[in-house]
Amino acid sequence: MKPGVTLLTIGELSARSGVAPSALRFYEERGLIHSVRTGGNQRRYERSELRRVSFIRIAQQVGVSLERIREALAELPERRTPTKADWTRLSARWRADLDARIALLERLRDTLDGCIGCGCLSLQSCALYNPGDQLAAQGPGPRKLLA
Amino acid sequence: MKPGVTLLTIGELSARSGVAPSALRFYEERGLIHSVRTGGNQRRYERSELRRVSFIRIAQQVGVSLERIREALAELPERRTPTKADWTRLSARWRADLDARIALLERLRDTLDGCIGCGCLSLQSCALYNPGDQLAAQGPGPRKLLA
DNA sequence: CCTTGAGTTCAAGTGCACTTTAACTTGCAC
DNA sequence: GTGCAAGTTAAAGTGCACTTGAACTCAAGG
């Protein structure tokens, strides 16, 4: 066994990432991660896939859809460990989005208290709910939350 | 017509809140909002319901589930405009949660850049992904994201 | 060898948050 | 009083992110 070429089984990747095997297969189906196959058709994962999986989970935690994550990961080299430049590109792309989400959360936190005194959370005047009618204009549904 | 008792139709509430009528009926079915009925069985909403709807949408934007929102709203007086104390209670309840979500987002934003240099996003060492193994221990699935 | 736990595929099922459809009724404007 | 947009219900459908089940194969220890 050549050192450094230790591939992970799906069970091992699952254990190390905390993601169910079924979810890992699902991610692969959707093109978010990749595997090589053994002679007996079993999946084997390179260690770099662990990094991808962790990235997927982190992004999900903050509400990014799998499709958006797939797009982002598609810009990383398909099977090789990403370089500094790869991560920098991805980071820059998402920064505005993350900043916006942070701002929204902070507004909610700060305004929940603030509104208590100001009679807020009435649509006409609430700066939180109605920052330029932008939110309402985007239509209903959780589908569009990060659009 | 007594002044101050202007009830809203579902269409009006929809227009003012930016939430589809079907969603409003759905919220009512789930006990998040309430209506009174006309002789002909049509819904009429008090103005205070507008405040509830806006609250629902804001909370959804930051990833709170309808069930959690329902619980929160259940602590507000069912049909009456909430008092300062009502909002304060609700705000205090959610504060820790919101703070945690903000912290996670900020960590992702700051660490995405940081990890570029530190070889991070490998599960062993990444403080973002693995703050005390807490996230992984919570199991997979977007269902539990805010549990 | 043989057992057994881990892995495989494909199809169907689940939970959430709604939307759509169909068939029907109300209520305001003229 | 009549027309028609806006309202009503119940049931089925949709999109996302998975999970579960059935039926089967692989791989490593005793």
Automatic annotation (TrEMBL), chains A, B:
<keyword id="KW-0411">Iron-sulfur</keyword>
<dbReference type="GO" id="GO:0003700">
    <property type="term" value="F:DNA-binding transcription factor activity"/>
</dbReference>
<dbReference type="GO" id="GO:0006979">
    <property type="term" value="P:response to oxidative stress"/>
</dbReference>
<protein>
    <submittedName>
        <fullName>MerR family transcriptional regulator</fullName>
    </submittedName>
</protein>
<dbReference type="InterPro" id="IPR015358">
    <property type="entry name" value="Tscrpt_reg_MerR_DNA-bd"/>
</dbReference>
<dbReference type="GO" id="GO:0051537">
    <property type="term" value="F:2 iron, 2 sulfur cluster binding"/>
</dbReference>
<dbReference type="Pfam" id="PF09278">
    <property type="entry name" value="MerR-DNA-bind"/>
</dbReference>
<dbReference type="InterPro" id="IPR047057">
    <property type="entry name" value="MerR_fam"/>
</dbReference>
<keyword id="KW-0001">2Fe-2S</keyword>
<dbReference type="InterPro" id="IPR009061">
    <property type="entry name" value="DNA-bd_dom_put_sf"/>
</dbReference>
<keyword id="KW-0805">Transcription regulation</keyword>
<dbReference type="Pfam" id="PF00376">
    <property type="entry name" value="MerR"/>
</dbReference>
<keyword id="KW-0408">Iron</keyword>
<keyword id="KW-0479">Metal-binding</keyword>
<keyword id="KW-0804">Transcription</keyword>
<feature type="domain" description="HTH merR-type">
    <location>
        <begin position="7"/>
        <end position="75"/>
    </location>
</feature>
<keyword id="KW-0238">DNA-binding</keyword>
<dbReference type="GO" id="GO:0003677">
    <property type="term" value="F:DNA binding"/>
</dbReference>
<dbReference type="InterPro" id="IPR000551">
    <property type="entry name" value="MerR-type_HTH_dom"/>
</dbReference>
<dbReference type="GO" id="GO:0046872">
    <property type="term" value="F:metal ion binding"/>
</dbReference>
<dbReference type="InterPro" id="IPR010211">
    <property type="entry name" value="Redox-sen_tscrpt-act_SoxR"/>
</dbReference>
